[in-house]
Amino acid sequence: MAGERILVIEDDRDIAHLTAINLSDAGYEVETTVDGTSGLELALSGRFELVVLDLMLPGVDGLEICRQVRSERPTTLVLMLTAKTSEVDRVLGLEIGADDYLNKPFSMRELQARVKALLRRKALLSAGSHAEGETVIEIGDLLIDVAAREVKLADENVRLTAREFDLLVQFALNPGRVYTRTQLLDLVWGYGYDGYEHTVNSHINRLRAKIERDPAHPVYIQTVWGVGYKFGPREG
């Protein structure tokens, strides 16, 4: 879908400029900034559907920006830009709640594909819920308003990241279905991450901590040993 607003936070002015040109050519509205301090302020403004975020920034670093965006703007998508050698930072960024990552150097075609996949997945979840009449899903004490992207547990609001919400909806729309980690990567992230199935584990653990009364003995997101995960049966 074109017309979505994207913020690029990248201190290399050449990369920022080239990224902005290519995303603009793809039909997106793009704004850029080259330092973390102004980038954080813009990212928290609520004006952008997606933030393309470099990890190494002057001022506030990318991990801290990602952490604050996840806390205050949980539905904003985050695509991290990382160096190939920064394995620890990349994994930490994903565990904090980044939705995707790209290793530098990257091709602009790949960047466009990743951005399109992230925004398309978010739109499809909402559109699919309307098509199936599943605008609100209730399972026990858990209520998921798909259209509003809101979750409540026993009438208390639950703050989820965009990826956590997408993962929960994927489960809730298919109760009882067993998913492998690779299938969840394909369905929720948009394509496979070679060697990054543990990213699913991290998201599952955070999601359980937020929606399960006893995360050690989950009712909603259950482990199927040796296979993957499934969502508990609906009540009623």
Summarize the structure.
Helices cover 42% and strands 22% of the residues. It is built from eight helices and twelve strands. It has helices spanning 13-25, 36-43, 62-72, 87-96, 108-131, 162-172, 181-189, 198-211, and strands at 5-9, 29-33, 50-54, 77-83, 100-104, 136-139, 142-145, 150-153, 156-158, 178-180, 221-224, 228-231.
Q: Can you walk through the features of this model?
A:
By secondary structure, the protein is of the alpha/beta class. It has 8 helices and 12 strands. The strands form 3 sheets. A 5-stranded parallel beta sheet has the order 2-1-3-4-5, with helices on both faces. Strands 6-7-8-9 form a 4-stranded antiparallel beta sheet, with helices on one face. A 3-stranded antiparallel beta sheet has the order 10-12-11. Strand 6 (136-139) and strand 7 form a beta hairpin. Helix 1 packs across helix 5 (108-131), helix 3 (62-72) runs parallel beside helix 4 (87-96) and helix 6 (162-172) packs across helix 7. It is globular and about 50 Å long. The N and C termini lie far apart (37 Å). The mean pLDDT is 85.
